What we know:
By secondary structure, the protein is mainly α. The protein has helices at 30-47, 57-63, 68-79, 83-101, 109-114, 121-132, 136-143, 149-152. The protein has 8 helices and no strands.
Amino acid sequence: xxxxILRRFFTENLHEIxxxxxYHCSHLSPxxxxxxxxxILLMFAAEQIYLDTHLSLKRLAQQVATNTTYVSQxxxxxxxxxxxxxxxxxxxxxxxxxxxxxxxxKYTLKELALTSGFQSFTTFYRTFKKELNMSPKKYFLKEVNxxxxxxxxxxxxx
Length: 158
């Protein structure tokens, strides 16, 4: 894991970050919840299921053999994120991993975003700004190969 954007999802000692009483009525035990979250992380990290643009909470619940309530609960408990934000952060991570690899090719940011699982450039842009507090163009110019940035990438949305 090269980019710190996913650091909060992985720790040696997983701990809940939601208030303990938030899910006090849940029938999901803490032990089973922790194992479910680990299973979800494994599917995201190893199988990269977030690249599926049609991945939904229901589909993920089916893949981990549980219900949508429990999937949503463990994601929120261990990350403080909604399912949509969780999946979009993984997609953003994938994008950030691709940018340095493709700096010599003439890919648009939109092409890289769409191959990272985002359904639209608008969703990608909104997620990027929310999570990194800057636009993709500003990030790219600041962080990645400053001397070639203007000549290698096209910063349009089409």
